[in-house]
Amino acid sequence: MNRYSTWKYILIAVAVLAGLLYALPNFYGSTPAVQVSTRATSAIKVDEVARAKVQAALAAAKIETTGITLDAHGIRARFKDEDTQLKAKGTIEAALITEKDPEDSPYTVALNLLSNSPDWLSSIHALPMYLGLDLRGGVHFLYQVDMKQALTKRLDSLAGDLRSQMRSKNIRHTGIDRTPAGIVIKFSSEPVRSQARGLILDSFPELAVVEGNEGTELKLTASLKPESERKVQENAITQNIATFNKRLNSSGVAEAVIQQQGLDRIVVELPGVQDPGAIKNLLGRTASLELRMVCESPDELSAAAAGNVPFGCEKFPAKTGGFEMVRKRVELTGDRLTDAQPGFDSQTQEPAVHLALDAAGANTFKYLTAENINKRMAILLIERNKGEVVTAPVIRGEIGGGRVQISGRMSSAEANEVAILLRSGALAAPMEIVEERTIGPSQGKDNIDKGFHSTWVGFSLIALFMMFYYMLFGVISVASLGVNLLFLVALLSMLQATLTLPGIAAIALTLGMAIDANVLINERIREELRGGATPQAAITAGYERAFGTILDSNVTTLIAGLALLIFGSGAIRGFAVVHCLGILTSIFSSVVVSRGLVNLIYGSRRKLTKLSIGQVWKADADQAVAAPQGTAAVSAAKAASAVANKKPVGN
Amino acid sequence: MEFFRIRRDIPFMKHALVFNVISIITFILAVVFLVTRGLNYSIEYTGGVVIEAQYAQSASLTGVRDALVKAGIGEPQVQNFGSSRNLIIRLADKDANIPAFTALDPASKKLTFNADKFAAVAIAAGGPDGKITRTEVVGPQVGKELASDGALALLLVVIGIMGYLALRFEWKFSVAAIIANMHDVVIILGFFAFFQWEFSLSVLAAVLAVLGYSVNESVVVFDRVRETFRKRRAMSVPEVINHAITGTISRTIITHGCTQLMVTSMLIFGGPTLHYFALALTIGILFGIYSSVLVASPIVMWLGISRGDLIKPEKKKDVNGGAVV
After folding, report:
1. B209 with A557: Cβ contact below 8 A
2. Which fold has domain A440-645?
3. Who wins on pLDDT, B324 or A93?
4. Which pick of A9, A55, A98, B263 has the fewest CB atoms within 10 Å?
């Protein structure tokens, strides 16, 4: 009866093998490295020459490397520890980046942590656990997006639009005010008010209107609808994330994590980075948009063809590659742009970007387009005094009303990108850092050592005690606890959940708690034996009776874990993820795996007379039988006589 | 080998009143300390700055302290952290934002705490070769949310566990288990208030984990109570409970002993970061055994648990045929 069917053994074996496989990369460890790559925009590729330069620079600075490799990702130089890595980064930067502004250099130099595991493991996505910042050092920021400002900005621009549209439709109001409640428009007569109301309902789907009177004055109060408010907020946060991504990518920070947290926060985590000030400047800087005309008179074109920059023009790199000659005169700035959305041309169905300008911008734009039909205008993104031509479309006709469409020769993905770029040139809404953490690399290593050291010591102590107290059943318990640890590590590696120091503490605690299940089972088996059951029956009853209790107690622990997971952030979350996963793996390993082992050892023995579960002490047999220390001698005959002679204790 | 050689059921319930009086006294003391001393919240809750610095040699605590006082901070908190070469400095939010330590943040156009400026003023005063190994800056609004999230998490745990126990056992069990274990939580907090140990996020995690864990204890005993009710029809309620506790006591001690082995190892080897986490667990485990066995069970008894509560009674026919007055 204590036999598992073959498929159960196979299941356990497969689970353990998979666990081993996915836990394996963690044993290889990882090496701190410096990675040199080129910017996506740059034509230069990282080559042997650059590699030689890196090698020479490191040799000159007497920095020891454990290997420099060159592959499709760039150059990777490995070092023995984080301190050397930091020093090497400075040296390599000095050797490769000669430009005054590092962002002009085609190269980016970044810190990286390379796994030492062989390629075949990486190819099946068996990766080492993802270490949190407190274990590997780095910078963590929590940005709070000022949503109130984002909403105000949006409502301001809608108020401007509304004003100009009412003017062009000749709807006479006696005043438009921006109040905290929304846009308040006053009228002198009812027909005009209903006309205005119609306009808002037709052309401003984002606004909700309420009528009201103040003395003799008729009023309309327009405010953002709740769903448009939500949209504005969502846009603000996705735009800011897009901007952060772009800026971090171009600065060459490897493995940056940028995530939304809650409704209005952005988490930025940069492993390996040690200078929060530089990152703050990078992320927080503002960019602006400019609209200028392209230099394309015949003289200018011939000058450009000869390789000169014509008078009154400037040369800017174009996003699509190559360069554009653009006039120095700025026609319009991004302050006038209120929105940019990707979409489709209503006639040709080509992907397009729809721009919305505020009233003053619309006016300027109308004159500009009227005067420059069939000429090209350029939209530039200026960041840190450096410009880039995002797009340079041809003006087909006069455009009034502040609604502009850029189309032609773009895919919808490109349209989307341009729209985001135009919107997020400047950050969509101001942001504030509400949490900032910097952890030095040596401290991270220290935390790992302490965490693992305490786990191992605790584990060994428990193992020693269990084996001493429960003999073979103790060994089985320890084996299943080991399997539990293996599963937990494998699961964390597979899910690539972030492991933090509280996470390691959770591993330790989970192991300390998981042994409960085995103690319950072992105690129960002893009790059944004490009660006179045969060894085989005791095993079955022990596991069956203990299971209900194990389940109940794990569910209550899991409830606590889930509550932590739902409401926790940061340190708590790191703890809760591991804790919850650990509870799940421990149910499996302490019940299924340990039972499998027991069945394998004892299940096939028909005439089993004793179990190696430590001494089973019986109140009445205490004096009569001096059981050999450490073994339970419960023969079937004695058990039978016990049943006959006295009332069983347990049952 | 067997540690527990118990011949007869131990009459725990005879001393039920004593256990509960001890419990109530500890509980009241804990509440008194919580009210009079309050918790020493970490900056994660209050907002502010924590800086850890490492020096080549022993750092001068007074040097750093004097520099901070000179910069205008009334009572700077400067301590050694792990070794004499390491310092930890805590600044309240208002102290961190004095002009000497702030620089303009480009994103918000506001003055915010700047570690470099702080290092130049304070860290340099502690000795040569001092460098910052960790900084943590938390705005006050984040702290407030954490406190309310913590309270919500606690509430969810309590409701979840009560609901589950009521479903699996009976409401009397769930009430008893929660009273017993919530009082553990208060006692842990009482310890933290009395000794003014730092109450950080990881301590909160430990407290909630302990809550889930020590409810286990009650569950194991209750399970046995139910089983005994089924099997031993002749036993009175206190006898049943005594029998259940006696039957599980060896498991209780061994399990908690094992968990405590792990926690002690964390306490000794885990370093200062895990110190209070492990400490909260230790207190929680010790009081957890006591309360979930010796406090929860008497409460169940006093709430009037009976065999019928746990074992579905056969439907009794109403003698009066449903007539009511």
Report:
1. yes
2. Multidrug efflux transporter AcrB transmembrane fold (1.20.1640)
3. A93
4. A98
* Torsions phi, psi for B157 (to 5 deg): -60, -45
Residue of A nearest to B44 (CA): A435
User: Is domain B12-41+142-308 given the CATH code 3.40.50.720 in the classification?
Assistant: no
This model of the complex carries an ipTM of 0.86
| Sheet arrangement for strand A337-344 | A337-344, A351-357, A403-407
Backbone angles phi, psi at A271, to 5 degrees: -65, 145
pLDDT digits (tens, 9 = 90+) for A437-480: 888 877 888 888 999 999 999 999 999 999 999 999 999 999 99
Which residues are CB-contacts of B119 (< 8 A; sequence separation ≥ 6)? B53, B130, B131, B132
- Class of the domain covering A32-112: alpha beta
Closest residue of A to B261, CA-based? A458
Distance CA A443, CA B142 (A): 25
Asked if the Cβ–Cβ distance from B216 to A439 is below 8 Å, we say no
Do A462 and B258 make contact, defined as CB atoms within 8 angstroms?
A: yes
Decide if A263 touches B, using CB distance below 8 A.
no
In total, the C-beta contacts within 8 angstroms joining chain A to chain B are: 268
Residues with Cβ within 8 Å of B255's Cβ and at least 6 positions away in sequence, in order, are A515, A516, A519, A520
Region of poorest pLDDT, from A216-220, A262-266, A641-645: A641-645
d(CA B45, CA A569): 12
Q: How far apart are CA A338 and CA A327, in angstroms?
A: 24
**Exposed (0-12), middle (13-18) or buried (19+): which is B109, by Cβ within 10 Å?**
exposed
CA B189/CA B280 separation, integer angstroms: 9
Q: Examine the pLDDT at A636 and tell me if it is beyond 50.
A: no
Q: Which residues pair with A265 in a beta bridge?
A: A144, A261
> What CATH number is given for A286-432 in this structure?
3.30.1360.200
The amino acid at residue B9 is D
Average pLDDT of chain A to the nearest whole number: 82
Buried b (16+ CB within 10 A) or exposed e, A30-64: bbbbbbbbbbeeeeeebeeebbebbbebbeeeebe
Can you tell me the distance from the alpha carbon of A504 to that of A492, in angstroms, rounded to the nearest whole number?
Answer: 11
Q: How far apart are CA A357 and CA A364, in angstroms?
A: 10
Which residues of A are less than 8 Å from B164 in CB distance?
Answer: 555-556, 559
Contact B262 A575 (CB under 8 A): no
Q: What is the largest CA-CA distance in chain A?
A: 119
d(CA A37, CA B239): 76
DSSP A182-195: EEEEEESSHHHHHH
The domain segmentation of chain B, as residue ranges, is 12-41+142-308, 48-138
Prediction pTM value: 0.76
Answer whether A440 sits within 8 Å of B133, measured CB to CB: yes
Q: Is the dihedral of CA B169, B172, B173, B175 positive or negative?
A: positive
Q: Phi, psi at residue A279, to the nearest 5°? A: -70, -40
User: What is d(CA A372, CA A295) in angstroms, rounded to the nearest whole number?
Assistant: 12
The class that CATH gives domain B48-138 is alpha beta
The percent helix, strand, coil of chain B (3-state, each to 5) is 65, 15, 20
Q: Boundaries of CATH 3.30.1360.200 in chain A?
A: 286-432
Q: Range(s) for CATH 3.30.70.260 in chain A?
A: 32-112
Given a contact cutoff of 8 angstroms between Cβ atoms, the answer to whether A136 and A271 are in contact is yes
CATH class of A149-225: alpha beta
Subunit contact A566:B109, Cβ cutoff 8 A: no
> Which tokens go with B130?
């001092």
Q: Bin B29: left if φ > 0, else alpha if -120 < ψ < 50, else beta.
A: alpha
HEC assignment per residue over A467-506: HHHHHHHHHHHHHHHHHHHHHHHHHHHHHCCEECHHHHHH
State whether residue B253 sits within 8 Å of chain A by CB.
no
